[in-house]
Amino acid sequence: MSSKFADRIARVQPSAIRELLKYGDDPSVTSFGGGYPDASLFPAVELQRIYTEVLTTDSATALQYTASAGLPGLRAQIATRMSAAGAATDADDVLILHGAQQGLDLVAKLLINPGDVIVTENPTFLGALIAFNPCQPEYAAVEMDSDGMDVDALEATLRGTDNVKFIYVIPDFQNPTGVSLSLERRKRIIELANEFDVLILEDSPYRELRFEGEAQPTLASLDTEDRVIHLGSFSKILAPGVRLGWVSAAPEILDKLSLLKLAADTQSSTLNMTAVTRFLETYDIDAHISAMRGVYRAKRDLMLSTMAEHFPAEVAVTKPEGGLFTWVPFPEGFDATVFMADHALPEARVAYVPGVSFFPTEQRSNFARFSYSGQSDEEMVDALTRLGAILNEHI
Amino acid sequence: MSSKFADRIARVQPSAIRELLKYGDDPSVTSFGGGYPDASLFPAVELQRIYTEVLTTDSATALQYTASAGLPGLRAQIATRMSAAGAATDADDVLILHGAQQGLDLVAKLLINPGDVIVTENPTFLGALIAFNPCQPEYAAVEMDSDGMDVDALEATLRGTDNVKFIYVIPDFQNPTGVSLSLERRKRIIELANEFDVLILEDSPYRELRFEGEAQPTLASLDTEDRVIHLGSFSKILAPGVRLGWVSAAPEILDKLSLLKLAADTQSSTLNMTAVTRFLETYDIDAHISAMRGVYRAKRDLMLSTMAEHFPAEVAVTKPEGGLFTWVPFPEGFDATVFMADHALPEARVAYVPGVSFFPTEQRSNFARFSYSGQSDEEMVDALTRLGAILNEHI
């Protein structure tokens, strides 16, 4: 039957994230793999009240179909939040998505012919690569340092590469590295996009989870020529299980994305959109986010101090100022995928995401991404201590 | 900016359904357009109890990420229902989707290279065409009669057409015609698919809403060579607002569809999947569906008798045995799109779906689809009476 598959399916292969989500279901394994938020932070009491109220008073509309672009009230709430963060946005500039992941799929559909080039950070979000791949792009991956994407390398890439359609960038607490883009570089990326006439896809699910350092403006707010397509998400600031995100872009782009959304799945869940709108009207989500920041800061601190204590001295872990991940560079020659299969899983009962899948072009094997958001403090310390002991046997 | 768009976007244009959903929001217009179920039939009390319970006792898992294929319990419940309907199905054979519409998008991605041919009924579901179009297929549309797709015409089409990848068929209460496929023809379609080595995409959202006549087996249950990809939906039997559907197919196909689902939007809503699973465990959905059937039968009868009384005698409306739609053929030369814009909307304050958009190849202007599911009895009679008066002035 595979002889029937379209050519694009050659680019659709099982991913490390998918395999790792399976380990997340095994209670004997501590998974630092998926970007699961801390479930104890979900506003469950408030959401229980909201869903009960919505289904008691508004079930006929909340359970029905609605407009494919999403509920106007939710689009307006998001526009207000984006405007307050510096990017003047109207409700009409916002399209509700089934999670920000859907935006990656729809933007690739909108822009990519087979062979067109997407410029990414190196490494970049694996979920973006699997969303882009069915459109058969080529990738140009630009090196990063502790201030994010190297803009001189970006300029050289844009100068030397034909058919670049867009630059994909996660400016805040990048996935997988945890690094944030400096203000100077944000401005330079906008200049370069203008100069080389390419679009920018800004993926911003973690931005509000900054627990230290100074917040930087979004690329959308620095945009001078309507070149930035901005993706946001409720998964990290509210709950992933409602599957709600959004895209904001210039009208000509948003209009086509709306048509692609209608074609892809008609609309997002009316019930979940109604409930999240009501949540934003009723409760103070900024206070909720503020409380989350303190928890994640403590979890990051605990992960880094435990790694510093128990991991081999050669392993210099990065220190993110927000978000859910840290990025662990092992010594050259260490293969984090092989080590996980041979030692971390069977001996330490620990899972992480081997870094190799995050490199779009030349893959590097000596990295791993660790999430500090999804375990209790005790489980985190126990698991990292077990893993450290085994790492010390092999490094 | 449109110079940046991918070639496929030439096939992504505003659709009649999208425009009509907008009229559905104008309270002065009675819309027979969208396939909105009767909101009074939603099991709102039961769903309110379920969501309250889920968010009280299981919020940490119901609001979290889960496996991309969907909750195992929900997959098992669907497999049991499909098996009871004659197609032996395991939980592993089922992938949960964000509505059956998503299945149309994913199956086209799986199978269609630009220029490949999809065989459809003529006319066929507009939402399927807009889902397929971004993959740049060609269409071969096979004529129908009161027993559904003409299988001799199908055979001639398969014999005379290269690159056919699949036959898209809605066997029960077809959208837009309301016609069902006879048992003999179902068997013949399976034979022809085997003979010409093509797949079948069976879209089955209305099947359980049969209120008269004898239920026919699904194509999936008649399948002899694992060629049928079956789409089902909770939108019509439970509520569209939860956005849950499913696809069942051979393992090799389902495995790739699972990867495409992960790439497209990570997973369906954990909260909605948890609630629907609990609903199926707690309540008797068959009793619920049975009650719905009586309501829709009465609505169909009221629509047909009102049309017979008030529409011109030349208009011979079809009589569906289930589902939500009827199909109205106007005399040759009548343009249902122009009439709606010039007369039905401004004078009668009535919307329907002009039939032209449902024809994949050679478009015909003298048809319209009317849904009888979304209005009160009084509103239906008043609106059809108004429309009939104006039709009589023009036919």
Question: What features would you describe in this structure?
Answer:
The structure is a homodimer of 395-residue chains. Chain A is α/β, with parallel strands linked by helices. Chain A folds into 2 domains: 2-43 and 287-394, Aspartate Aminotransferase, domain 1 (Alpha-Beta Complex); 44-282, Aspartate Aminotransferase, domain 2 (3-Layer(aba) Sandwich), CATH 3.40.640.10. Chain A is built from 14 helices and 13 strands. Chain A has helices at 16-23, 44-57, 59-62, 72-84, 100-111, 126-132, 151-160, 183-196, 219-222, 251-265, 270-282, 285-310, 336-348, 377-394; strands at 30-31, 94-97, 117-122, 138-145, 148-149, 164-169, 199-203, 228-233, 245-248, 325-329, 350-351, 353-354, 367-371. In chain A, the strands form 3 sheets. In chain A, strands 2-9-8-7-6-3-4-5 form an 8-stranded mixed beta sheet, with helices on both faces. In chain A, strands 10-13-12 form a 3-stranded antiparallel beta sheet. In chain A, helix 5 crosses helix 6, helix 12 packs parallel to helix 14 and helix 13 (336-348) packs across helix 14. Chain A starts with 15 loop residues before the first helix and ends with a helix. In chain A, 57% of the residues are buried. At the A-B interface, helix 1, helix 2, helix 3, helix 5 and helix 6 of A face helix 1, helix 2, helix 3, helix 5 and helix 6 of B. Chains A, B: Belongs to the class-I pyridoxal-phosphate-dependent aminotransferase family.
